[in-house]
Amino acid sequence: MTRWMASNLRLLLLAALLVEVSSDVSIDGAGVEEWAAAFGSELYELSLKYSGAEFIRQEYERRDDVHVERVNGIKVVQEMATKMENMLENKVLAVKKLRDKVEEAHEMYDYNPDIQFEYFNSNLVNTNTTGRNDRDLHLRKTFDLTPNEHFNDIPVNIINSTVQVAANVYNFGTEVLNGIAETEVLNEVFQENYERDPTLTWQYFGHNTGFFRNYPGIEWEPDSRGLDLYDCRKRGWYISSATSPKDVVILVDTSGSMTGSRHEVAKHTVNTIMSTLGDDDFFNVISFGDTTSFIRSCFNGTLVQANADNKNLIKQGLKQMPKPQKIADFELALVEAFELLESFQKKVRKFNNTGLGANCNQAIMLITDGAHETYEEVFDKYNEDRHVRVFTYLIGADIKDDPNVKWMSCNNKGYYTRIGAFADVEENASKYIHVLSRPMVIEQDHITVWTNVYMDTLVNEGLQLMTTVSQPVFNKKESNREQGILLGVAGVDVPVKELLKLTPAYKLGVNGYPFAITNNGYILYHPDLRPRDENGELKPNYNSVDLAEVELSDIDEQEYERTSLELVQNKLRTAMVDRETGYMNMTVRMHSKDMKRLHFRLNHYYYTDLAGTPFSLGIVLSDRAAGDSQLIGLETFTVPSGNGSEGAVGDLCLLKEGLENLFNDTEAAVLANWIYCNLNNTEGMTMTRPQALEKYLRLAMENSGYLSAKCDPELINHVIFDAKVTQPIVSYWEGIYEAPSRTDGVILSFVGTMGGLTRIFPNPYATQKSKFAEEFPNTIEEEYYQRAAETSTQKFIYSVPLQGQEDGYTADGSEYLVTASAPVLVTKDGKRSIAAAIGLQMLSDFLKDMFLETTTMHRQDCNSVAFDCELTCYNESVGCYLLDEHGYIVMSKEQQEIGMHFASLTEYARVFDRMLDTGVYVEIKQIDYQAMCQETVMHISAASHLLDPLISISTFLMGFTKQVILLLSQVGLYYSWEVSYAEGTVVTEEVISTPCDKEMTYYSANSDRLPQTSFIQKQCEDCKKSYSMDAVPHSNLILLIVDKDCTCDILRPKHLEPVKVEYNSSRWCQRLRTQVHRRRPEPCHSQHPLENSTDCGRGSWLCPSLPWILLMLLVKSILTYVSSRT
């Protein structure tokens, strides 16, 4: 009779006989210790046997062609940086070619006012006509598209580019058609760039009229709402290339005349202006009526960085802005703005080394529906040299041009524009950009700009993290030089995944990783950057996550402010922002990918700058399991000394053997999805990376051992050597599984190597199958390998899929699999390195039966069926658990509890609380700075004027009346009249997701406090709830036996879900106002003596007739009287 049959028979008999037991179970601590020792020994022997851990370790150590080398981190990071710099320089070269071609074409192009020109419109190609009056008929062309893996399988046309025209721009506008016609020459350059550098992805040119030429050509897809809101002129890459950094104060008129739709349009204008500001800009928003008020009181008296968090806070403040009232005091508002800029500039000079402020352009943006005068005295006092540009926005469809508002812009090197309604905002709010670009254009300085990381939204399919390199494109006609006309911006996208290809995992070892940051200290890429929330939506601040928010040192965060310079992570951050090359150690808290576990690691940080960019590159080598050392074996390929351009040369005998070991059994030998050889676009569409490796190794055999320069000889040497060393274990596994004493509960054995090779041997007699090869192909990047490397001792780490995880079940999904893994640590000449992780998978029921039987076999007073045993795990009054080092349940008699955290079980909440009190488990709090919270916000807005025609008419007449007042003030007939417009308001609630900090709770076992036997009596009903626990030797498991029958007062289980951190207002405000160290971009273009600022906006002033003035005054008086009586 097999062990499995015997154990199930016992369960059946026990259930049938319903053996009664005492309600007050006495748990013998000594017996539990005995069980833990016996079970640990048996489990370890089984794991050693079926994994072959000792066999494979000896295979590595017995070889004379193996040695261990200490990794030179500085050398590694500098080599990676050099490769990145070369790759990025190629992208800059591509942009320069686009820029030069457009400028050359514009100089030679003759403007055609009567132009008719057909082009491939990305919104209209391959679409059907809408009818006889289809004005876009000639743009609905057939356009060939083919899916291309290099572009995430998006259908593209690599022969032609397509043109997308912003929604508020006419497809056949004369300026647009001339621009499209003159940039047709870019198709040739696009193709040349792509042929020269096959790693290029999207190339494009954005024109100042609002069209966007993109290569390769695509069909443009609307967003999830069916809308196309893309306007290249509003994108960060365009704005950053067009302007230098700026300090901006936005003034919003909230006087009584800014009622109804004007108030809403003004808020929308502020939001649109804010959307054009980037991380290198600083700003604030002030509302004014008869007094001034900062939109966010926390930001009083300063400017803040225009990052996503601060802009989002201002947006929320705008939604709660009080309704308009009183008379606007322009002088007070302008003085406030000038003095704010002046005081902030003094602070910038004082703390110049911290990167505070833009320290370049300064601007005031005034949003109003009219001014009584020009306030020339204020401008003469504060802006005599016109170093502060003033941009004015006149709000209101019923308002004519205001010469006072226009004067403010035209006499202060700014721009004046009118915004009548919501539809006008997008086009007009950003007109200031081309004014700020004038000094740079006149100087003819083609600055190279790299953007912060962002999610590609060019198309809705295949979204990925990107950075863009771009350069401004100038009108170089000498006759236009003083006007400083920016034609547009040329750009090239660089997917983050292309950068990561240059930082291969095998060079960094297990638990090592690369990361990069910007001049602002924000993450360009990092394994803990989480741009999407739990619903898959992009977080609003995903591209302004700070390095100090993901590299968290092991320091109690309550002792320090997050921005404290005492924190080690801020020292690392400062060094990288300052573009230093160096090395640093830091003990950090690292959570797992699923945020379920927390690990403590000593990390070695190596960093350097990326020349020609604002970025700095860093790498981490882990200290655990000698992760900063590498095992080097016999090399199949050697690189010729001196000029290595010829490629590596291989030993044909070793190469032939390597091909056999790797590819004779492709099901049992799985290769990681790493880049062994770089593939061109055609190859990438027809073969996998492992298939490409086989192809190029066979080509090397045919070519006298010469390996293609497209391949990575170091990685290939690793994997060929690993294949050679691990080949014998296949025979070992065959013998184990064919032995008469085999165990069918173990269904698979595996070994994963540093070189990316995984050998798998399924139990041929097992009735269940595993999907291990499919779920865990990338060896050192998988959790089984990383957790095994966390221990430096010869023991196994046992894990099950936690609740909510999809991997780690049998192939049919019917049962949990227990995965056991251990590090293969090899010592040579006193140096040690991890060569592989080896292990097995077993059925969870098999592990349970194995443990239950252990509790019977080691009780002297038990018979063979355990009917007379009060204390065994067959007893229904006893709870039996195997917990892992973080408190998760690996084994339970109740299958539904597997993968849960023990702290979440209500009936044992007091037991876990006692474990915490006695130190068996330690509670650890960790702040997640990338969290999202649900919040309810109040919106205060004008009542719908569509619901009341009288209010709508009243608003129009009141607006016209104000124009009369302004006219009278100019001729001295208006003195003082306080206007207060009555207006209905609507208060609405909205539930939104906003960035926040959340406190995560983790638990870590302290084996020094084991064994432990105790009981709980105080909160229990006339009984003692006893329990006993001990560490299971050679594992990460803790055995727990607990009384189930004794009932205690309910104690709410530990809250394992993240909890929002509620900061007190002063601490939160101080955190928001604290400017962390940053480095300003260079150069700065704010003024130029040749600038011609006469083009400052257009408009006409219509003076109403006297009868109209009198009529409007009469109507206004009647409406005011009626309003006061109702």
UniProtKB/TrEMBL annotation:
The lineage of its organism: Eukaryota, Metazoa, Echinodermata, Eleutherozoa, Asterozoa. Keywords: Calcium, Calcium channel, Calcium transport, Disulfide bond, Glycoprotein, Ion channel, Ion transport, Membrane, Metal-binding, Signal, Transmembrane, Transmembrane helix, Transport, Voltage-gated channel. Residues 247-436 form the VWFA domain. Its main location: membrane. This is VWFA domain-containing protein. It is found in: Membrane. Coiled coil: none annotated. One of its GO terms (cellular component) is voltage-gated calcium channel complex.
